[in-house]
Amino acid sequence: MAKNTSDEQFKNVISHAKEYGFVFQSSEIYDGLSAVYDYGQLGAELKNNIKTYWWKAMVQMHENIVGIDSAIFMHPKVWKASGHVDGFNDPMIDNKDSKKRYRADQLLEDKITRYEKDGKTDKAAKLQSDMDDALKAEDLAMLKTLIEQHEIACPVSGTKNWTEVRQFNLMFSTQFGAMAEGSEEVYLRPETAQGIFVNFLNVQKSGRMKIPFGIAQIGKAFRNEVIARQFIMRMREFEQMEMQFFVRPGEDQKWFTYWKEARLQWHAALGTSPEKYRFHDHAKLAHYANAATDIEFEFPFGFKEVEGIHSRTDFDLSQHQEFSGKKMQYFDNDLNEEGKPYGNYIPYVIETSIGLDRMFLLTLINAFEEQDLSDGEKQDSRTLLRLHPCLAPIKVAIFPLTKKDGLPEKAREIMNNLKFDFNCMYEEKDAIGKRYRRQDAIGTPFCVTVDHQTLEDDTVTIRHRDTMEQQRVEIKHLDELIASKTSWKTLLRK
Ligand code: GAP
Prior knowledge:
Blueprint: H1 7-19, E1 23-25, E2 37-39, H2 41-60, E3 65-67, H3 76-81, H4 84-87, E4 89-94, E5 101-103, H5 104-117, H6 121-136, H7 140-149, E6 166-169, E7 173-176, E8 184-187, H8 193-197, H9 200-206, E9 213-222, E10 237-247, H10 252-268, E11 277-281, E12 291-299, E13 302-313, H11 315-324, E14 330-335, E15 341-345, E16 348-355, H12 356-367, E17 368-372, E18 381-385, E19 396-400, H13 407-418, E20 424-426, H14 432-442, E21 446-450, H15 452-457, E22 459-464, E23 470-474, H16 478-486, H17 489-492
Helix pairs in contact: 2-12, 5-6, 5-7, 6-7
Bound molecules: glycyl-adenosine-5'-phosphate (GAP).
Glycyl-adenosine-5'-phosphate (GAP) binds at residues 191, 193, 223, 225, 234-235, 238, 240, 242, 305-308, 351, 353-355, 357-358.
């Protein structure tokens, strides 16, 4: 059956995620906390597998990239130096009737999407370019004018009664230290990158790293988003997987192009159709960048950013050098074309930054399929998560055909052997067909059924999720068969 990418399908994915224990609203029994989510028993596994895929591809497969885990709390001066205290703002606007707050650029982007859907491509392009100009110039009055000119109404009140556009800082702050007087205001980090920049020399020296080299990390970030929507797409607490690649000044463009391609390849290896991805080069550059592009994925609500690749120049290290008074320079004793050492310099940085939660959402949406299995005689269907086997939360489900005759014991014996290498699930309730359907719905690539024949000849039936094909195999070959499909080599060798 053709994939339905409508709003309806998105709603189905969200309810599927809850029903099967992938994602829950945070504090749901208290009516939830807006834009904060918890990952359930299968969600935590899927998330870990995405992290592992990223960590292996970005850290372990590269001799010149290492990973760290820096603290969420950092010295307040870090955020002054990085520009976040003064410049990490979103333009916001309130509707005076509904009292609802919106991001001005988001209202305009929604209008652009609507123009595109209605085939008004000229209008969409003109509005896009006017909005980019206004954002680049930080012209808040112009943003308001554009909202008025394009007759954008509040989705709640339906009126066009707007306040002025104002800047709103996205960082959360809290008090550090127990004593009211002695306590200091600190921020919850809005990106993990700064933990890498401040540790640049620690890692370079202790790891004897030579340029070009990278430092990577996975961790939580916090942003007080003005509007939060589309499920786990825009959250106030989320996770990032970031890598800063330190290069010689002048070689930044070369590495920017390299990482653009490498990161797209990481996505492509999962088998997603290439038309689902595109690059979106930034017209408005962040305060730290000289080039930037987004890798966008076609979600049911349109093409949206999943990952950013930014050429951050020497901005961050220079700022930290200035604000801390500590040298952030690297001594490069490799010889240049004139046969002289490159000498001391502050490296340039190419950053790859992907939102783990967005990647999780992309993965669920891409895998979700409602398949019609009806034939001429009977109606049938199944809901399937066509996850790459490396990402699947459960790799193999083990079923005894019945709950008696020693079949459960034999099934557990098989599972106790497989569970060292593969995340397994044991199930003995309901008919086999029902058990297959439940595993299809959570993306388990293999189901192993133990029956009476197993007791005689040590063979089992292995059933493949995507084809529903069943195969009789010897128990001693199970390990090898499952490993051949779930090994990280299947993804990382591509
Ligand atoms: N260090 C650079 C940086 O943070 P960014 O484009 O602001 O760049 C990088 O964020 C990625 O983090 C985005 O591509 C997105 O996937 C993810 N991200 C950003 N804000 C998010 C939010 N509020 N909720 C979920 N993911 C978010």
